[in-house]
Amino acid sequence: MIFLFTTTAALYFFFLVWLRAGLSNEQPKSSNLPTASVVVAARNEEVVIGKLLESLLAQEYSGERLEFIIVDDHSNDDTAEVVRNFAARDERLRLVTAVEMPPGVAPKKWALHLGAKASKGEILLMTDADCTMGPNWVREMLTPFSRESVGMVLGSSPLGRGDSLWERIVRVDSVGLDALMAAGACRQFPLTASGRNLAVRRRAFDEAGGYEKFRAFISGDDDLMMHLITKNGWTVLPCFSAGSEVESPSPDGFMAFIQQRLRFASKGKAYYRLDFVDRRFRFALALIYVANVAVMAGQIIFLIDFSSHWLLPWFIKMIADGLLITTYLSKIERPFDVSVFLLNEVWHGLYVAVLGALGSFVKIRWKGRHSQSQLTTAGQ
Q: Global pTM?
């Protein structure tokens, strides 16, 4: 058994080392200024959306070539009123009110669809209503589109803004996902994406049919779109430039974190049914999951018989994760929180294994709504 666990961890190690090598790829540079539309779906965000709007209106980008579309996704607070007040100050900002959803369409997909439909930019930038960014965010995220083959750009979007232990744990965990996302994109091996910070060429978005092929999923407006765009022959690139980062608050407590991760994992089974999902990704997803199961099982057995060799898979995984994350952080010139990384690795295998298994089966509650049933046929 220990041989099987260790072999699985070793395969995981070599996969991450291969991904890590891709982070050395150079980023394109350009002074091109395409027209751009920032599209945000907002539901019950009156407390936080003001900071986002201030960040957007402060963007140092040619004014007539940039617009902001905020879609009020059936809020029952004063989100729309806050947006209207900002719109009165700047004509680049527009409020779109989401109309009733058609059957079988997830709320956020519908809101983003309406926002994209109302926009005019050559590039669509997506972020969330509780995010903030620096004044050069739009410019830096659009730079890679100087290559005509680029259909999507993925930006860093760490969670957690404070210095408490909880904030640091969440930040280290989200940085691990960012590192996996960026390395996969460098290798043209689509792995993950974050709707908190991504940009899509409109032509690529339209060729994909927008969100139609995965409209029922409560999540997936980011990674499933990435898979579909890649399937259509477009290149997906990460953005490492200083100023391209988007910050977002950490989940409000442990249970909120669990709900967020369950939402991320809710598409687990569907990855193996949707015909546009890269087959290499399916293998990689299985490898990552099984490696974390091996680590969890080894830790549990160690607690029973205290034989240290059962911790070898965990040790191998920890080295692989550390190599990838430190290389990524060096690339974006951010510090490595060593102590919190080590602490996070203690339970990382457990939570990935458990939540990865549960995500496809439990009902997800998000923004006051329950998830709808997932698609049952590939490409539907």
A: 0.91
